[in-house]
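Exercise: predict the fold of this chain.
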Amino acid sequence: MATPRPTDPHRRKFLGRLSLPERRFVGDALRTETVGGVLLLVAAVAALIWANTPALTDSYDTVRDFHIGPEALGLNLSMQHWAADGLLAIFFFVAGIELKRELVAGDLRDPKAAALPVIAAVCGMAVPAGVYALVNVLGDGSQAGWAVPTATDIAFALAVLAVIGTSLPSALRAFLLTLAVVDDLFAIIIIAVFFTSDIDFLALGGAAAGLVLFWFLLRRGVRGWYVYVPLALAVWGLMYNSGVHSTIAGVAMGLMLRCHREDGEEHSPGERIEHLVRPLSAGLAVPLFALFSAGVSLSDEAIGQVFTRPETLGVVLGLVVGKTVGIFGGTWLAARFTKAELNEDLAWPDVFAVASLAGIGFTVSLLIGELAFTDDPILMDEIKAAVLIGSLIAAIVACVLLKLRDRKYRALTEAEERDEDLDGIPDIYEEHNPAYHLRMAKIYDEKAAEHRRKAEAAAGSSIEGDRPA
């Protein structure tokens, strides 16, 4: 059985062993995301069946386009818009907390350690955008969708891993999570900069004032959901009416939470709130968004358009080719020029497989597709179909590559989780602890003594059995 080799503290390793607190945090976060990803997958399949079953198509359109909400507040929105502008604000709120935590307590707090995943994520967004642009220059298509293939959907990627039954070592899971966090940051910037309509400065000023009040109350230590939830709703509504995409409000509030632990704290306020809100985001907000956004026509003609129209072909190639080449190439170049050594328990094909898995760009890609082609509903649906097909192809490629290394991953994962002395700390984290070796020596002595007793008892029984009556 393979055993992860200890990381040399004097030489910086890429994809080296995580610290025990970081490993536990990553494990908890990804477990929730995996459950949410499975629900997301179910919601996407349900939407496709609902929208492509002739007897049900009209009902899908009716429910999706049904408007509800106070007209006087400018919030009489369709169900689809409530999902995209309202529920996804919860998703981006959690993304804001994740980003803040990474910056103050995670891998991104150390510039040297952060350089490699940040470069990988930036390349993993720039190359797909370049692939899309190139395809549409050659095919004389619209450049409006350049940002669609730049996103990675961590929940969907983890759902794929859950479905195929592959367990990644913690270092690869952390790398994937960090990629997704940085990816979300740049997606937020893209949405704020490139998809902001005419600005209502009065509403924007009100949203800014609400955010300042939110920050002030946090710094004063005011507690109570009954204070923050109404304030958050008011900030969201003002942000929506300002013309700036309303999900920005969720990100801003997430970034304001304190994510470092003070003396005597087991968890920071940001970690506690993320623990409470993440199930709502992963289990409700994102699946409902998928239900109302993934219901596109997948007829033979529509699928044919995906591979013949430059806009849709650019999305598919951006996700499948651009993401993989961008993340892998950026990682390899960054490691080469920063002289970071790849963890000897892993190999570059592992990085390539994770890079291909990052080509699953579902939730944010669908959102950007809606924003980019709002004025052309037909092309919007074709772009969504391209996102689904591109993500499916990326998932299949990643599954094949990861399954080739599945035995190695399982051995590494088992070694990471082994706790023979039952003290709640994996043995690999105690290798250099003298007390650990004393405990293990005692355990081995006890096992050896028990084995001898059983052997002697068995020998005695055999002798007794051989004696004549």
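Check your answer against the key: Residues 1-10 have pLDDT under 50 and may be disordered.
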